[in-house]
Amino acid sequence: MLNVQNLTFSYKNTPVLKDISFKVETGENLAIIGESGSGKSTLLNLIYGEFDLNQGHIFWKDTEILGPKYNLVIGYEFMKYVHQEFDLMPYITVAENIAKHLSRFYPEEREERTGELLNVVELKAFANVKVKTLSGGQKQRVALARALAKQPEIILLDEPFSHIDNFKKQSLRRNVFKYLKDKNITCIVATHDKEDVLGFADNMIVLEDKKILEQGKPEQLYNNPKTPLIASFFGEFNVIDDRIIYANELKVVEKSNLKVTVITSYFKGSHYLIEANLNGDKVFFEHNTLIEKNSNLYLSITKP
Ligand code: ADP
Ligand code: MG
To answer: According to the UniProt entry, where is the signal peptide (predicted)?
Structure first.
């Protein structure tokens, strides 16, 4: 289990994280979300032991994670970290970059494991290509495979799919998170993309203003967002009578006390997102067809 206790940290004079405490069970997938600059990467760096804490403790099982002041070599065998900037060896191939982290004493297993990892990140066809010729997204996939190669007990992923295009993203996420679950590898993912969280994270933490604003299961945070910031992570929403109502929780009805005038319809594939005017405020709702501009209609809240 990872145990973060009352962690406080500043870069020089800028406090970034204040009194942060949480636990992650072995094999659990924890998502850390928050706006840009909220301290997600800093928190991962601290868990990795990259900096010294001002206050608090971090334990992985019985081992205390120590910063550079107490630990000459940064990092631990049981932990891998895929940074936002991934440093690969550009002049050797994809397969060699991955295999570098596997034991040389078992060449057959080494080859088999490299093949398995190339499948996870869907780069089999690029095995013998030099890394310097790859795109940003492909490099990110090599970095992921390389981190998985050593079978860490815990892996830290900083916006792991940010450079990967939408054609590949969905299947890659499923592969990587399934691989981690199958091997019971504890995983902490910093992200601002709900697609990295929903369907994969067991728990999530929301960072805001140096603190943990909220933590819980994705279902709990989605169904009961404490603040607009949390709702905005999940999708388009409205505040109506002080309640947070997602765009898909409003539907058109015959008559109600929510009379709106349509401004624009946005095509979203499976539905249209309709922007409308409700007593001078903007309101967003989902509808399965386009609605003409200036149409007047009534909405009802479907949320229980
Ligand atoms: P996030 O990953 O959520 O975008 P970061 O952890 O990168 O946030 O940054 C949190 C805050 O710490 C920001 O205000 C950022 O400017 C500051 N910061 C990040 N890295 C450093 C650094 N090496 N030195 C000083 N300030 C930093
Ligand atoms: Mg970051």
So the answer is: none
